[in-house]
Amino acid sequence: WVFHASMLAISIHMFLRSAQPLILAVFSITTLSVRDRRAYSLLFEEVGITVLQYKILLSSATLDWIEYAPHEVVELDGESMYF
Question: What is the pLDDT of residue 78?
């Protein structure tokens, strides 16, 4: 029974880790910011991603805003930027 209990504990832990972004997105009481709504409507809605899926991406930190100063030069090294 020890084996089954440990497997159950591991399964519950893995389930909670994978379901956490969904739970955070569903139960978040905040709405999308103007910037997030604009990015969603221009980029993600076009390809069929739902608002819930977009909120999951935001809550799991898969998407993150990077702010640059005006006229700042950005060098793309290819490690973390994909298009």
Answer: 63
